[in-house]
Specification:
With 395 residues, the protein is mainly beta. It contains two helices and 37 strands. It starts with a helix and ends with a strand.
C-alpha cells in the first residue's frame, strides 16, 4: 500500500496545474477588449511564448505568479471581436518547476488585434524566457537569468541578477543594471547598457551601441552606427562599419576599428590598436599604441608604465601627428615625413635629432630619431604629407 501511495503521489506531481483565472469581454470606446486575470503557483522557471502582443515581467514580493492579459479587437462588432478573441488561445499551466504562459493564433484574424501581457513573479525566479513574434519585451527585478527574443520589437531589462540574452529583428535594446553576462543582438536598432557586472557582447546591424559602465571585458559591434563607452574595467573591442568610436577609461587593452569615422580614447591600461579609413584619431594616456588612418590627424599621449610595454606605431597618409611624451618615459623615437612640401617635424626634446634629405627641386624627406631617458620600446611615427610634433606631456 505504501508503494501504491508513493506512486500516486508521483503521478500527481507530473499532472500540470492549470491556472485559476477569470475572463471578461467589454467595450472600450468604439472597440472591444478581453481581459484575462489569473495566477499560477510559484515556480523556479517561467516560459512565455506569444504569437502577438507585448510582454512585461516584473519581479517583486509575490509568493505566486500573477498575470493580466489584455487583448484589443479593433472592431465595433461584439460578435466579430469574440470571434477574434476565440482565435487567440491563451494557455497558462505549471508543470514541475516550470510555469508556462502560451498564446497562440488559431487563425489569421487573430493577428489583427493588439495584446498586452503583464506578469508579476517572485523576485527569486531562477530563469525567465520570453518569446514574441513582434511585440515589445520588458523584464525587471528578477534574480536569475533572462532570455528574450522578439521578431522586431524593443527589449528592455533592469535589475537583473543573472545572465541576459536578448535578440530582436530590428528594435532597440535598453539595459539598466545586470549582474551576469550580457549577450545582445539587434538587426538594426540601438543598444544602450547602463551597468553590466559580467562580460558584454553587443551587436547591431546598424544602430548605435552605448556602454556606460562595464566591470569586465566588452565586445561591441555595429554595421554603421556610433559606439560609446564611458568606463569599462576590462578590455574592449569596438568595431563599426563607418560610425565614430568614443571610449572613456578602459581597464585593459583596446581594439578599435571603424571604416571611416573618428576615434577617441581617454585612457587604457593595456595596449591599444586603433584603425580608421579616413577619420581622426585622438588617444589619451596610453603606454603602447598601433594607430593608422587613411586621411586624418593623430594625437596620442604616452605615459610611463610599470607594466608590459610594446613597440608603438602611428601612421597617416594625409594629416598632422602630435605626440605628447611624459618627461620620465623610456622610449626610442623614429619619425618621417615622406613628402614634406614645407611640412616639418617639431620637437620639445633636444634628444630627438631632426634632418631633411632631398634637393631644392624635388620632394624632401624629413626624418627624426632619438632616445629619451636611455631609450626603450620603439615609437615609429610617419605621415605622407603633414607636420609631426613631439610635445612634453605636463603632469
Amino acid at each position: 500500500m505504501k508503494t501504491l501511495f508513493k506512486f500516486a503521489a508521483v503521478l500527481l506531481l507530473l499532472i500540470p496545474l492549470a491556472a485559476a483565472q477569470q475572463t471578461r469581454v467589454y467595450q472600450e470606446g468604439n472597440n472591444w477588449a478581453r481581459e484575462i486575470v489569473g495566477s499560477l503557483p510559484a515556480s523556479h522557471n517561467l516560459r512565455v511564448k506569444v504569437d502577438a502582443g507585448s510582454v512585461r515581467v516584473e519581479g517583486g514580493s509575490e509568493t505566486e505568479i500573477q498575470y493580466v492579459i489584455r487583448n484589443h479587437a479593433h472592431t465595433s462588432s461584439e460578435e466579430t471581436a469574440r470571434r477574434e478573441f476565440d482565435g487567440y488561445k491563451v494557455t497558462a499551466v505549471a508543470r514541475g518547476d516550470t510555469a508556462s504562459i502560451i498564446a497562440e493564433c488559431q487563425n489569421s484574424d487573430a493577428h489583427h488585434f493588439s495584446g498586452e501581457f503583464i506578469i508579476r513573479v517572485p523576485r527569486n525566479m531562477e530563469s525567465v524566457r520570453i518569446e514574441t513574434d513582434g511585440g515589445n519585451i520588458t523584464t525587471t527585478a528578477v534574480a536569475g537569468r533572462v532570455d528574450a527574443e522578439s521578431g522586431g520589437g524593443t527589449i528592455r531589462f533592469d535589475d537583473i541578477g543573472g545572465a541576459v540574452r536578448a535578440e530582436t529583428g530590428g528594435g532597440s535594446i535598453d539595459v539598466g543594471t545586470v549582474g551576469g553576462d550580457l549577450n545582445l543582438n539587434t538587426g538594426g536598432g540601438s543598444i544602450k547598457i547602463a551597468a553590466a557586472k559580467g562580460k558584454v557582447r553587443a551587436s547591431s546591424g546598424g544602430g548605435s551601441v552605448i556602454l556606460v559602465s562595464g566591470m569586465q571585458e566588452a565586445v561591441l559591434e555595429t554595421g554603421g552606427g556610433n559606439i560609446e563607452v564611458t568606463r569599462c574595467n576590462g578590455q574592449v573591442r569596438a568595431t563599426t562599419g563607418g560610425g565614430s568610436i568614443d571610449l572613456g577609461d578602459i581597464g585593459g587593452k583596446a581594439e578599435i576599428e571603424t571604416g571611416g569615422g573618428s576615434i577617441r580614447l581617454s585612457s587604457a591600461t593595456g595596449p591599444v590598436r586603433a584603425e580608421t579609413g579616413s577619420g581622426s584619431i585622438e588617444l589619451g594616456r596610453v603606454s603602447s599604441v598601433r594607430a593608422e588612418t587613411g586621411a586624418g590627424g593623430i594625437v596620442a599621449k604616452f605615459i610611463s608604465s610599470n607594466g608590459e610595454r610594446n613597440d608603438s606605431q602611428l601612421e597617416t597618409s594625409v594629416g598632422d601627428i602630435t605626440v605628447y611624451l611624459a618627461p620620465n618615459i623610456n622610449i626610442s623615437v623614429r619619425a618621417s615625413i615622406e613628402v614634406s612640401n614645407g611640412h616639418r617635424i617639431h620637437s620639445d626634446f633636444p634628444e630627438i635629432n631632426i634632418r631633411s634629405e632631398g634637393g631644392d627641386w624635388g620632394p624632401k624627406v624629413v626624418s627624426a630619431e632619438g632616445s629619451l631617458n636611455g631609450g626603450g620600446p620603439s615609437l615609429k611615427v610617419s605621415t605622407t604629407t603633414g607636420d609631426i610634433y613631439f610635445r612634453r606631456l605636463n603632469p
